[in-house]
Each structure stands twice: as structure tokens, then as C-alpha cells.
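Researcher: I'd like a structural prediction for the single chain below. Treat it as a standalone chain; there are no partners to consider.
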Amino acid sequence: MEPNSNFTENQLLLSSAQLQEQLEQQKALASVIVRIRESLDLETIFQTTVTQVRQLLNTDRVAVFQFDREQNWEGEFVSEDVALGWDSAMAVKVYDHCFGEQFAANHQQGRVQAVADIYKAGLSDCHVAILSKFQVHANLVVPLSRQKELWGLLCIHQCSEARDWKESEIEFIRQIADHLVVAIQQAKHLHEVKLQAAKLAQAVQRDQVIAKIVDEIRSPLDIETIFKTTTQEIRKLLQADRVAIFSFNPDWSGNFVAESFAEGCTPLVGVQPAIADTYLEQTQGGRYVNNQTFTANDIYQAGLTNCHVTLLEQFQAKAFATAPILQGDELWGIIAAYQNVSPREWQSYEVESLSKIGTQIGVAVRHHKLLAYAQYQAEQQKTLTSVITRIRESLDLDTIFQTTVTEARKMLQADRVAVFRFDPQKNWEGEFISEDFVPECNSVIAEKVYDYCFGEHFAHLYAQGRVNAIADIYQGKFPGCYVQILEKFQVRANMVAPLLKKGELWGLLCIHQCTAPRYWQPSEIEFTSQIAEQLGVALKQDSYLKQVQMQIVQLAEATEREKAMERQELLAATIDKIRQSLDIKTIFRTTTHAVRELLEVERVAIYRFNPDWSGKFVADSFKDGWKPVVQPQPMIIQTFEDTDDDNELPRNETFVPIREGEKLWGLLVAYQNSQPRYWKEEEINLLAQVGVQLGIAIQQAELLEQTKRQTLELTQTLQELKQTQTRLIQGEKMAGLGQLLAGVAHEINNPISFIFGNLIHLDEYTQELLKVVKLYRQNSSILPTIQEQIDKSDLDFLIEDLPKTLESMKVGTERICDIVLSLRNFSRTDEAELKPVDIHEGLDSTLLILGHRLKNNNDRPAIEIVKQYDSLPLLECYPAQLNQVFMNLLSNSIDALEEKFNTIQQRYLKLLQTCPRIPLIIWINTQAINNQIVIKIADNGLGIPEEVRSHIFDPFFTTKAPGKGTGLGLSISHQIVVEKHHGQMKCSSKPGEGTEFLIEIPNSN
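Model: Treating it as a single chain, here is the predicted structure.
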């Protein structure tokens, strides 16, 4: 009975263990199911599953393997949990070329592969080799199939030994795999839902962007702004590398007029010459004329012609989508989206968006053209009216011609407009008598021209009023003599209108375009014809002028009677001008000029008395050919006898007093020097009235000048107060910073001194211990346990490395001491008064503080410091303030060198070239010259432009970006050197070579 009892007890124990194992498996399965339901993240689900399964089955590795659908049963492990001591299989690409033959079909049917020992299971060599790569000894693989498609595998690896897989374990893993497949399907559905939501959001965003672009196109902006905004917004919308607008010329060539492109792309606007597409030229616009779009997902696979592919390669394009821009029924251009990095499959909605925008751009272009044409016509009429007005206002032909050519050239935007006159005594020979031209062209004034074929080919046509417009002198069938003459004057396109005087050809109005051919518009030809007609009227007026001049002589007496009334009107106008200005020089200049014209005298001057009744002329207006009398030296005015009949005698001058209140300020004098003159009473009265008004104006000007002086003084005082306040604040900041540095240095110095002192003793103790260890190893029999510990600890290495470690700690401690000493030297809080110091010590302390900025970093290489120190005596100075000067100058030099490096590096990046090594150097030179301590700090940066250098010591002047500089550093430094130390501070710079600051401080020592 006892054996049966033991057997029954063993059965019960075994049954209990199996139940416990099944219970643990069900718990793990429930936990995995809960995690799958709680999370939609596959990575989290996978990681949770493999971790719990490995713990439950007590295996060496549990991993999820995913196949790559694009490859032939190739894949990689995407999640795993592996025991310590075994390699990770994550992200390792696996390809078993015999998998498809031996396992794929079985796994697709849901079969599980359980291998107790891979070396005894009869597996193929290639399969065994792959499993050995991952240290696998026993293997359990469950397929992960999604809708009869093998997605991946759930792999359980036993690496340490062979293992017989229980049926319960296989069933448990199969259930786990089923739930993982559910999770995979959920993740797929979630991904699809997110993609649909993203597409809907993109559609809404796309419609909003298109609506925004349409609103901007319809807003009253200039066409360039519309083009720029449209290309930027469309490129953002389509996420393309480039969006550009191309405009056609009449010959179906064209140019890019606007674009937006990603970084690294070559610009096309203003860079490419006129682009000629032979297909568009032959088909007169091709499919675009019929409002059709054109797309190519890959230019090399789209069946394009070689010339078309070559053209697109110049644009760096790999794929493109284009839509026409129609101006009414006329093809104006195209809008194109380019993908430069790689081919791209263009979606229908993207092409539709591009087409919609092209339609709106066409409307904007048409509106712009209509508006520009209306404005051009208005400007033409305005210019024509101005020319007609000038012709009517002036009878001087030279003035009329010069006004006309100037206005006409501005209106037509031509390179040259000139008037050519024939010599009546010679056979169609003549010269240019008036012109206006751009600086790039040569002047043709006074150039004699004789075209021996003019009379034969052109004279009779011009006499009939014909206007000749030539778009390109080399494209027409013109006589060689004609082309040769035009080449002499750099002419490429030419428009000529005849100038007729009483039906005869008097000359020509010539419009020249020198830089390039030009298609003359009908409106421009009509405008030129009208201008020529008006110049013909002016020529008629000139012929009538001589007749009128004869009649003027006969009307001289009548004119003299009218002058009195005109003088009164001019007097009123003169007084009004005096009252309109408060500037005394302007008043004097206006008054003397107006009075001279009013009285028709040769000179009018204003004389001012000094307190001793000497005086000087302060203003005058004189006839051409006379010399001014305004001079700085005083002169005495001769007095005149007071006679009753002095006005009846011929006299060369007359004068009236100018009074400033009750005080005699000066005289207003009129001169007639060429001949004697009888001054009339109304002339003297008129002069007296002007003198009274001048006195009033002088009073007003004096009051204004006094007010300005007071305002200027107040402004200067306020500015000085602001500068003083700012400098005080800056001084307090620097003093606080110095105390902070000194405090930090003091706090660091104590523990560092403690550590440095103990390092000496530690080194001695270590040496003694090492000696004892060596003696012990040499003279004693070492116990096995001690010998084992010595071998394990690598005692020889410790004996060799421990002194080195102590030495490195000593070097680091000395470095910290040097930094603390530099901080104390820089702050010098205990040296606020004059004190003899070593200048080199302050410079070195400043360099040490700035050491982090001098080192190389990710943005630039290290900055080299070149010291050229002379032997200097101690300098009596304010040490902390001089250190502040050194800090400001060295910081500015570092900023300048960083700017230089960034500028040169960006230049090479834009050129897609490798940037060479850029040396960054700061020189510090000290000298003692004639009781002067001279300090020079120079760099090889980009230098300072002269217009900036002249202001660098001004308070608040800075060229740095906002937030990077106050504009006070150099101003305060200049004040410290000049005012505090009675020295000099100068700056010299050559743009592109560098900058040098020179400090000279007198040394009383």
C-alpha cells in the first residue's frame, strides 16, 4: 500500500503544479489583453507582451519579428525582452532564403513551429546558421497573420540549453499571438482613420489658403507683391521645392518674374536669360492656350523630349506641375510647381489648386495691365500738357527744347531723346542741339551728321509728317550708311518724328534705345507725334518773335507807365516773401534780389553797423558780371552833405535806414554804377518801405534765434544729464559685478586652498603606502585569497596610475587657483583709488576670463591671441576701470571675428563651395614711449566703415542687433581713458582688413 500512496501523492502534486502553471498563464494572458485594450500604441503593446511572456515562460529571449512587405521574406525584430548575458536582436535585418520554401506556407496557415534543439531537428543549414547568430538553442515560433497575410512572428528563444516545449506553453503563446494580431489590426485601422482625418484637415486648410490667396490677389496691391505672396503661399500649400511664375514674350520665349524656393535651390528670377521652348514657339503656346494643365511625376519617365529635359535640369527639377495664366483669351504665362529633391506623384487636388490660382493671377494681370495702360495714358497727357504749357510760357527755343527732351525721355523711359536741326545752307547736314540721356550713353550734342542717303530715302517721307519707328536697326532692310550712323550713337532701337516749320522740314525729334531692341507701342508713337507737332508750334512762335520784338520797341513808353503799378504789386509780393520766412539770410537774399529786379538797378546791398559805427555788407544781389561786396572786414560809409536838392543830382547810389525798433541797425543801398541815374521819389519811397519791413523782419529773426539758442542749450543739458545718469548706472553695475567676482573668488579660494594643501600630504601618504605594498609583495608569502584579490584588482596598474591621478588633481587645483587669482585681479574691489599696477597682469586676467569665448566651438575655430608685451614700469591708474576698458575692447574684437567667420562661411555656402581655413587673430601690443604707456589691441576682422568709425565713441551708438549691445561700452571706455586717466583712445580701421584700438596713458612713475 505504501508505494501506491506515494504515487497518488505525486500525481496530486503534479496536478497542483499544472493548475498553478495554467493559472499563471491565464493571468498573464488576461494582463496582455487588458494592456492591448488600454493602449493603441503597438510599441507599448509589444514591449509589455514580450516582457510578461519571457517572465512567465522563464526563457532567454521573447521577440516580435516583422516582415518587410516590399522585400522577399526579409524583416527585422521590432520588440524584444532578453535576459542578461545574451545579445539583443533588435533592428537586425534577417533574410532566410529558404524560409519561403520550408516555413512560409505553414505559417500562413497558422501552424506553430516548436523546436526543442535546433541541432537535432533536421533544420536546413541556412536556418540553423541564422538561429545560431542569435545564440538560439531551442525555438518556439508562432505566426502573426492578419487577414490571411503573414505580418510577422512571435519568437520564444531558449539560448542556454535545449528545451522541450509543453503543449500548454504552445497553446498559451498561440492565444497571445491571436490577441497581438487583434492589436495589429486595431493599429492599422487607427492609422487609416488618422490618415483620413489628416486628408480632410489638409483639404480644409488648402481651401482656406486658396481663399486667402484669392483675397490678396483681388486686393489693391501692386502686381509684384501679388506674385510674391502667391508663390510663397502656394509653395507652403503644396510643400514643393519651388513655385514660380513664368511670363511669355511675343515670340513665345519668356522669363521667370516671381518665385519662392526652398533653401539650397538656385534662383531663376533675374538670373536665367530669356528662355526659348521650341515646342511652345512652334505650337504658339501648345496645350496652355486651351487652358490645359501639364504634370510630370518624373521628368525622366514622362516621355519628354531631350531638349525639354535639359531645360528642366537647369531648373534642378525632378517633377513638375504647371497651369496656364490666361489674360482674357490670351495666354500670358504659366504658374509652375517644381519638386527638385526627388520625383513626386502629383495629386489631382494639387493640380486643381494650381489651376485655380492661375486663373486668379490671370484676372489680376489683366486688371494690372488695364490700370497701367490708363495710368500711362494719363502720364502721357500730363507730360504733353506740361510741354505745351512750357512752350506757351517760354519764347526761348533752347529752354523749350531742353524741357521737351527731358520730359519726353522720362515719359518714354528711353535712353536718349534729342532734337536734331538741319543746316539750311547744306544738303541735309545738321547737328544735335538739345538732348537728355542716361549716364550709360554718350552725349551727341554738336555732333555733325551727314547721311548722303537721307535725301533719297527719308526726306520726302518726313516732309509729309511720317513718324519712323524701328524696333531693331539690325532686323530691318536699312541702308548700310544709315545703320553705320546709328551705331556711331550707340542706337539699337530708333523712333524719329519730323519737326516742320511752315511746311518745311526744319529738324527731327529722335528717341533712342541704346541698350536693347524695343517694340514701340502705338500710344508711344502717337505721343511722340504730338510732341513734335507742339515743337513745330514753338518754331512758328520763334519766327513770330522777331516781329513782336519790333512792335515792343514802339510800345516801350506805354510799358513804362505800367511799371509803376507793377512795382507796387512787386513791392507787396516782396513784403509778403519777407514775412513768409524767419531765416535772416533767406530774408536778405530774397529782399535784395526782389528790390534789384523791382528797381532795375545793377546792385542792391544791405549794410550793417557795428557798435563803433563801422560796419560791413551782409548781403547783396548784383547783375551778371559784377563782383560781390559782401566781405568780412569792416568798412566806413562816407557821409553825404545834407542838401535840399541832392535828389535832383545824378548819383550812383541811394540808401534808406533799417531800424530794429528804435535802434539804427543798418542801411538798404541801391547802386547804379555803369552810368549816373536820377532817382525818382517813388523809387526812394519804395526802398524806404522795404527798409521798414526789413527792420521788422530782423526783430522777428533775432527773437527766433534767441529762442533756438535757448532750446539748443536745454537740449544739450538734458542729453548730458541722460549720459551722466547712464554712465553712473553702468558704473554701479560694474562695481557690483566686481564685488560679486571678488566674493566668488574668495569663497572658492578657501576650499581650493584646503584641497591643494591636503593633496601634498595625500601624495606623501600614498608613496609610503605604495612602498609598504611593494615590500610586502617582495618579502612575504602571500596568501592565495590575497593573491587572487591582487590579480582581480590589477594592483600593478593601480600602483602605476595612482600617482598620475594625484598629479592630475594637483594640476586641476592649480588651474582653479589661477582662475580665482585672475578673478580677484580683474575685479580689484580694494583698488578704487589710483595705484601702481602691472598692466600685463590686468590684460592676462581679462584674457583668462574671456577664455571660453576664445576657444573653438561648433560655430567657429579658436581665436589666436598674439601677445607682444614690452618691459613696462608700473602704471599709476584705476585698475578696475582699466580692466573694464580691456574687457570691452577684447569682447568687441571677438564679436568682430565671429561676424567675419559667419559672413565668409555663408558666402561659400551660397556658392556650394568648401570654406577654406579662416585665421582669427587678436594682437595685443604694449610699449613705453616718452613717459607714455601705449596699449594696442588689434584684430583681423571685417573692419569698420568710415561712416560708423566716426561715431563709435558716441553714447548709445551701436551697430549690433537689439538686445546684444547698449552702445555704452566704447563710450564709457573712452571716458575712462580720456577723463579718468588723461590719456588718449583712438581707433583706426581698414574695411576688410581689421581694426586697431590705441590707448595712450601718461605715467607719472
